[in-house]
Amino acid sequence: MVEIAKIPKQIQEERFIKVIKNEKNPKEKKWQVDKNYTKEDKILLLHDGNVGMLTGYGVIVFDADTKRMNELAQKLPKTLVIQTSMSKKEPGYRKRHYYFKSDMTKKMILKDNGEHLGEIQARGQFVVIPPSKHPDGLFYEVAEDRAIAELSEADLRKVVSPFLTSGAGKAIDITEITKGANKGNRNDSAFRLATFHRKGGADKQEAYNLLSGWNGKNNPPLGEDEIKDIVDSAYSTEKPYRVSFEQNPKTGISEEVGSNTNTSTTSTTSTTLYVWGACFDDKKLIIEQISSYYFIYNYNGRLGLAQVKPYDILDDILRDYLMIHTFLLVYL
Q: What is the DSSP string of 112-136?
């Protein structure tokens, strides 16, 4: 017999399915179509086994299978949390389900370089709920008893985007990202660029300055708060996210990969060039970023990646201005 009173009150108005006793598999076929029930339905009440809740009809569930995903979930609004089974890969960690009211309908799978980290269950899916018993012997139970928070799909994607796009392990061409991004790709591109900077040695403030400058190329630009949130996310873990790049973030781009504009002041056949800081239009930006190992720049309409190098042969004015640095420029 299903004890409705033991189903969390926050989800009692959802639709439920019958799940095999002490298992996670549906007991009936066509549970997405018509074999799902309200809490008052006698078919459900007489069921001797576990219970599942349909997702994607106003409520989605962030299935945090790993500690990394649990940490990521902490960045989302506080909400109802159900603890499930113990992780076999991470001893001591008990998996969690985070419930949200959302307009999202399509399931998301979260990966990092092919490693499965978790899922966000939506339309056509279900999650097992209290008072069910997991195959490992533990009962599903409330870990954080809160009202279910509202979360739009757009806001959710801002947080989980690196794990939606890097799962295949394909190396990313950073030169394409430096050209700017259109609506729909801006958040993903910003996160990748921030990760590239972090892997190259830039601190969080430097990465924020760099992305703020790059943001002007986007159509339309992201809000400054969004840029800050993305940079914070890229720097939130102990180590950089495992996103692969075609270019080495530590050394920049080693060969010329083309230019989208012509210039009369530089050679299009040369891959590197030493220039003084006076060549740049935005001198303030250089001063703010001078301690960075490298940064993306725009000189005479040409994008490039600059690597800071100590250099002693400077006249007095430029030495004072550039704090005894010049820049190795690699044109794109």
A: ETTEEEEEEE-TTEEEEETT-B-TT
| Per-residue CA distances from 325 to 130, 274, 320 (Å) | 62, 11, 9
The pLDDT of residue 141 is 97
What is the pLDDT at residue 245?
Answer: 76
Taking CA atoms, 53 is separated from 44, 119, 137, 234, 324, in Å, by 12, 16, 20, 33, 64
The Cα 202–Cα 317 span in angstroms is: 27
The whole-angstrom separation of Cα 200 and Cα 295 is: 9
pLDDT tens-place string over residues 124-133: 899 999 999 9
Q: Where are the domains of the chain?
A: 4-161, 167-234, 272-331
pLDDT for the residue numbered 1: 85
Helical H segments across 53-165, by residue range: 67-73, 153-165
| DSSP code for 20 | -
User: Region 229-237: what's the mean pLDDT?
Assistant: 83
Give the CATH class of 4-161.
alpha beta
pTM of the predicted protein model: 0.54
